[in-house]
Amino acid sequence: MGAWLLPATAVALAMDAFTVAVATGLSLKVASLRQTLRLAFHFGLFQALMPLAGWGLGASLHSLIENVDHWAAAGLLALVGAKMLVESRRKREGREARRDPTRGVSLVMLSLATSMDALAVGFSLSLLRASIWRAVTVIGLTAASFTAVGMHIGRFVAASSRLERYAETLGGIILFSIGFAILREHGVFG
Prior knowledge:
single chain; mainly alpha; 6 helices
C-alpha cells in the first residue's frame, strides 16, 4: 500500500463523520467543548473499531480469495465510493434536532452510521495484508479530528446541505481513486 493511500483512505472515511459533525454543529448552534469531545471521541472510536472488525473478517477469508484479493479490495472501495456519491445526491431534510445528538442512543446511531463504510475498508486492508494497527490509528485520529473541526464549522456555516454534498462527493471520488490505484499497483492496467 502506497504511502499516500492510508491517509487518503482516512480522509475519505472521515468525510461522513465531518458532514454529520457539521450538521450537528448547525443543529446545536452552540457546540460546547464537552459535546465536541464526546462526538469526536465516539466517531473516532467507531471509525477505528469498524476497520478492525472488517480486517479480522478478511484475514480469516484471505486464503480463499488470495488470487483475486486486489479485485475484491478495489470492488469494495468502489461500492463504498458509489454509496457515498449516491448519498451525496439525496436531499436531506429534517436536520433540526430536538435533543442533543451528542448523547445517548443518538450518539451511538450516528457513530455507527458514519463508520459502516470503514468495515468494508478494513476488509479491503486485510486482503492487501496492510498493517491494521497503523491503519486504525490513522483512521480513528483522522475521524476524531475532522469531527471536532466539523462541529465548529457547523456553527458558522448556514448552508450545510451544499457543504455536505461536496464533502461526500469528494469522499466517494477519493475511494474510487484508491480502488483504481490498488488495481494499478497489481498490474491490472499494464
